[in-house]
Amino acid sequence: MVADKATVSALSGDPRRPDCVVPYKPRAPSEEKLDAFGTVGMMLALLGMLTRVRIFSFIAIAFVASAFIQRNADTDVKQLFMAGMFSIMGIFFSHLQPYPSSLFGTNTTAAATPAATAAAGAPVQA
Fold it and tell me: Tell me, which GO biological process terms does this entry list (predicted)?
């Protein structure tokens, strides 16, 4: 039967050869595929959020965006979403750092008031 198809296709001008067709065999899936960009993005996002260093959070956003762009069917999108949220929270928390009181005009080097030195037990000079 294959020879008949080959003969018919050769006579009709069809260049395909059905006797040379190899059926498709999908590759065996790998055991565990490590998403490097997503993992590094998650670690940098947590580091940026906990240490309140903005550069870690900005780099984490770049890694998470890269992992999101390169995702495939078996990529865990929840992990990418969490890493993105951690990096955004890291940027948000780094902007909420309390400033030293000297930046707001309070004088911390002023002389102590007489009431405060009397309460501390030091003699009050009049």
Answer: protein insertion into ER membrane
